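Quick one - first record:
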Amino acid sequence: MHSKTPHLFDEATRITAGDSRWQGHTSDDYWAFVGPFGGTTAATILRALIDHPQRAGDPLALTVNYCAPIAQGAFDLDVRLVKANRSTQHWCVELSQGGGETATLATAVFAERRPSWSRQVAQFPDATPYEQTLPYPSIAASWANQYDFRFVEGELRIGTTKQDTPASSYSKLWIGDRLPRQLDMLSLTAMSDAFFGRVFHARREMVPFGTVSLTTYFHTDSEALAGEDVTRVLAVADAKIYHKSYGDQTGDLWSPNGRLLATTTQIAYFKA
């Protein structure tokens, strides 16, 4: 018999519908060092859009700008359809707390994906199977312990002897929910932010860090993603530059079946 208890991820991204303003609540199970895990915030915003009665199509792109810290507790989502045509919808979502200023500002594009010529140029990365890859140990942040990280390459190594030159920022790893949950657009969104900060890998130490802006591009639709019938992704993450307190992060998320599901890019603050 299957448990009817909601998955912690669904609880963390749960929303209550309103007219134009929707409500959500932070989750202690997905808390980072100084605020909620940005991936669950992004997924909560996407849930409000997917559940909106005016929504048409599937998410094509989502950009989330983290403007200010989100405190523990309730928050409001002001959801607005900015522009719609036959193929696409453009949305804006503002997250605020206590009737105050905006803490997070997001834009999203939804699209009616129609049959067309297709070609996947990118090649599925070589990787040891999930079952043959060791899980990464638990860490202090509660959000990370909701995921099963299994590094194929570029494992996060903190506290090792510092080198004269920075270590590689590149990682290849399997990511799945600790309690397995079938992958959908919401969990795909959260996993696009589930890479550890690339600066942690490069410096081999934890430094003050926070995502400023996250963009995820979706290369599948809900029906095709459901057809994959998977609970994990193979993720590849890297960085190109760290300069004057900010650095980029990029990532590719693959189905174990060899399909590129999403790509993501971020700009993040660090202090080092």
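second record:
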Amino acid sequence: MDTTRINASIITIGDELLIGQTIDTNSAWMAQELNAIGIWVKRRVAVGDVRDEIWNALTEESKHSQIVLITGGLGPTADDITKPLLCEYFSGRLVVDEGALQNVKNIFERIIKRPMLESNLKQAEVPDVCRVIQNKRGTAPGMWFDKNDVVFISMPGVPHEMKGMMTDYVLPAFQEKYSLPAVVHRTLLTAGVGESYLAERIKEFEQALPPNIKLAYLPNYGLVKLRLTGTGSDVDAITDETESLFWQLQDLLADVMVINEDKPLEEAIGRMLTDRGKTLATAESCTGGFISSLITAIPGSSNYFMGGVVSYDNNIKQNVLGVPKKILEEKGAVSEETVIEMVKGIKRLMLTDYAIAVSGIMGPGGGTDEKPVGTVWIAVSGKGETVCQKFNLRFDRKRNIELTATNALNALRLLIINEENSNSK
């Protein structure tokens, strides 16, 4: 099979992207989906709602890629200029697409239930030189153009709508149009060690990898993902080769590996609790419920997560969790003694097998010389052991909260493992 490399460029359109008002999640998702079927994203470009900039981006990206994907600028308002520009760029004229028109009417009649405006009807207009991609999740249709052996596809900037078009139509069409290589990913998650430490530890393994298999380091908030990516023309052969190397990588990092899948830490812990038939509760001060939010974002978490208390105020720590007033007055809310009482109190209150408690100073204010911003105490408790640890974080409020959650969840993971190892001796 001829698997000539197919490159893609992604152009995202909108002033809101350039000023940071809206985070561009579209291009990241599109890149992942394209890579999964063997199309390589060579360039990603963001431009404002400016005619010449969009025009120049189309011309420039077509020099580098066989596929140019465009999102944004297809709405009904005056600042949505993508469609008329595309009409001019591809030398077409706007015509009403009957399928798109009926789709708009159906949405207003059945879902929105109010009269359509003229601007809404104009969303059914498309250049007569494009192939229309119907929008099953919104009013603006997608458009497929061919020019000089380059495919241009314009889709709405609304993520839900764009993803529907990509999944239902665009990706299957690419797989049919191009002879794409097989791409195999295997990912493992590590915790408690840094990227540089991992790189040094597996240096010989990485140096010995064949040219068609790459290793990527993906660090994030106290965790590091390691992803092996294999490419080849034979899907079975490249799968076997990648899988064999992945097992070697797992053996090298067995003591720091959380899970051998591309899953978050909270899902790995959920599996541990489910497999053991155990339950969990949380008592959060400085994280304000963030840990509970991570846990309950995982489907099936109701099987093991009983609940949590956000004890932001000392009265809640004292009156709900049972932290003695004397400890709060003498040691303070951010202390080893307080989080130990918090974790015991929440476990007693919720009648769970395991519990997490956190208390800290997230910033930017509230710190002292004795307890500066970033001081965090974490306690985890299990069947017969309570483990407490102090952290000195040094980041902004948001990242301090996220790192506290990561460290708390990893502390619970280690406690579960240590308890099992102790019981097996």
